Amino acid sequence: ALGVRNLIINGDMRIAQRATSKTGITTSGYYTLDRFNFVSTTDETMTHEQSTDAPNDAEYSYKFTVTTADSTIDSGNYAQSRHVIEGLNTSHLRWGTSNAKTVTLSFWVKSSVTGTYTIGLANDDFNRQYVKEYTIDTANTWEKKTITIDGDTTGTWKTDNDRGICVYWNFAVGPYKHGSEGWQTPATAGNAMSTSNQVNFVGTTNATFQLALTQLEVGDTATPFEHRPYDMELARCQRYYHIRHHAWRSNPLRLYAGTTGSHYVDASAFPVTMRANPTATELQAPSLTGVATGILSVRTRVDSVGIAGSISGTGAYSCDNFTYSYDAEL
Fold first, then answer.
1. Measured between alpha carbons, how far is 88 from 298 in angstroms, rounded to an integer?
2. Residues near 37 by Cβ (< 8 Å), separated by ≥ 6?
3. What are the DSSP calls for 161-219, one per residue?
4. Dihedral class, residue 137 (left if φ above 0, else alpha if ψ from -120 to 50, else beta)
5. Which of 28, 166, 194, 304 has the most CB atoms in a 10 Å sphere around its CB?
6. Range from 196-200, 207-211, 222-226, 322-326 carrying the lowest mean pLDDT
7. Would strands 45-51 and 61-68 be described as parallel, antiparallel, or unpaired?
8. Mean pLDDT within 144-149
């Protein structure tokens, strides 16, 4: 195949804009590696990290370490690493039609806990789900897994900038979320996460699980992992999340006591076009010159990110050196 083959962004685990490691993780969220979301309703505590322990042909892996175990998984609970592919990037698969294309998922995995694990694919509503078992045969050894998946000819699959396909690797799944292998429409959306054979990886303190070189591509054969240039992969990640330091100074504005001044960072200043209107979070407060108090709030607009503050001083002021994260994750 020519051109970009891998539908997974950051499949080689190189981009980590948020952090390279994070301890004490007990809830769902994006913590370290870009585009890989941890989803959990179980009671374990984990450490996530970008690890240099990786298979040949890779520099990094995504490593999960259980620091506090959850030995008994409640019926409806589950934990997984999830990668969500935007519908604009999956529309050519034609899923939900009679022309649905076959895809192949390949990845390298290493764990201290052997046994049967499961991967899954789902649409945006999780009312169409695919489950497949794979086996980790040898503890603490890199193994490559390849799974070919017939395209789904039914269901509704987004083809816009919303969630197209969710791909996930399960760590633990309670009985209420068990389904069978293959495509299925669960009676309750999201209730076919795995088979009943899925091991409870989070039930062992100090257990480790690592993923590397994850690839989803069209066809019934796994091709060698597609190594894309770093700048290309970073830009693809920045469509969903990026951090910007604004070493920018406004033209001095003159305000009077009790009035409000506003600064706007236009979306054209972003490194790439974001998937949707982002949420802005202040990471470093700006320095102000000429007033007694600083920027107090953030607001987001469709065409720009507005940074507004109530100013208590009088006279001209300017604003400089502020850092924000911009989040448009799926």
1. 29
2. 28, 29, 30, 81, 82, 83, 84, 329
3. SSEEEEEEEEEEE-GGGB--SEEE--SSTT--SB-TT---GGGSTT-EEEEEEEEEEES
4. alpha
5. 194
6. 322-326
7. antiparallel
8. 98
Side chain identity at residue 53, one-letter code: D
CB 148 within 8 A of CB 104: yes
CA distances in angstroms from 105 to 13, 167, 226, listed in the order given: 16, 9, 13
CB-CB contact of 217 with 6 (8 Å): yes
> Which residue shows structure tokens 């685990």?
13
Say if residue 126 is exposed, middle or buried (CB neighbours under 10 Å; 0-12, 13-18, 19+). Answer: middle
Q: Which of 151, 193, 155, 203 is nearest to 173 (CA)?
A: 193
Q: What is the mean pLDDT of residues 83-103?
A: 98
φ, ψ dihedrals at 238, nearest 5°: -70, -15
Where would I find the beta strands (DSSP E) of 69-207?
A: 78-86, 103-111, 115-122, 129-136, 143-149, 163-173, 182-184
Helices then strands, counting H and E runs in the chain, come out as 1, 21
- The distance of Cα 275 from the centroid of its chain, to the nearest Å, equals 13
Tell me the one-letter amino acid at 209: F
Q: Judge whether residue 25 has pLDDT over 70.
A: yes
Tokens 């399960």, residue located: 170
Residue pair 121/195 in contact (Cβ under 8 Å)? The answer is no
Measure the CA–CA gap between 126 and 121, rounded to whole angstroms: 9
pLDDT of residue 281: 84
How far is residue 118's CA from residue 161's CA, in Å, rounded to a whole number? 27
Instruction: Write out the two tokens for 126.
Output: 């999780």
Judged by phi (left if over 0) then psi (alpha if -120 to 50, else beta), residue 200 lies in beta
- Burial class from Cβ neighbours inside 10 Å (0-12, 13-18, 19+) for residue 91 reads middle
How far, in Å, CA of 189 to CA of 180, rounded?
A: 14
- Computed over every residue of the chain, the mean pLDDT equals 90
Query: Residue 55, Cα to own-chain centre: how many angstroms?
Result: 22
